[in-house]
Specification:
With about 230 residues, the protein is an alpha/beta fold. The protein is built from 8 helices and 11 strands.
Length: about 230
Amino acid sequence: MEKQHIVILTGAGISAESGISTFRGTDGLWENHKIEDVASIWGWNHNPELVLEFYNLRRKAAAMVNANAAHYALARLEEKFKVTVITQNVDDLHERGGSTHIIHLHGKLSEAKSSGNSDYVVDIGDKPIKMGDLCPMGTQLRPNIVWFGEMVPNIEIAQLITSDADLFIIIGTSMQVYPAASLIHFAPNHIPIYIIDPNIPYSVNISGLNKIEQPATVGVPALVDELMGKL
C-alpha cells in the first residue's frame, strides 16, 4: 500500500525556537543593515565584502544551535508516511533533526556557489567565504542564498510536490513571503491543511483550515503524535 504523502512548509518560526535570530527587526533592518544592502543581488554587486561578512556571521551562528523538538517530530513522520519538507529557512536544522527529503526554497547557509555559474555548488559547513575564494571556473564564490531580485529556482518543483499532497502542514511562517506563500493554493482542495503558529496571520483564510495556535515545539509534536496514532 502506497504511503500517504505529507507536505510541510516551514518558515522562520521553527528555527527561532532553536535560537536562530530572524535578523529582521521591527525597524526593517537586518543586524543594523538595510535589507537591500545584504540580501539582494544589488547589494552583492555593490559591496560583496559586506554581504560575505554578513552571511559568514549568520553561518557561524546557525552552526552553533541545535535542532529542536519540532524538527525531530517531523522526522518521526517518515516512519509511517512519505514526507517532503519545503522550507524557507536557510539553516540545516531539518537535516540535523533527521528529515531526509527537504527542498530549500531560499538556499542554504552551509553552501557556496559560483557567482558566474549557479550550477556549481559546494558544501562549506560553517567556514567563511572570503573575497578571492574562487570556483574552478575562476569566478568569486558567494553564499548559496536566493536574494531579493533573484528567481526562486525550486518553486516549480515545490508547487508540483504540494499538488501531490494528501495532507499539508504549515509551520512558523507569516505567509507573507512570495512565492512560498502561494504554495497553499497548490494543495488539493479536499485535503486536510494544518497551520501551526502562536500568531496565525489573518491573511490565511482557507476553508477547513485546522489552526493550532502554539509554538512549533509544542504544536508539532502533538500533531505528529495524533497523525502517527491514526495508522
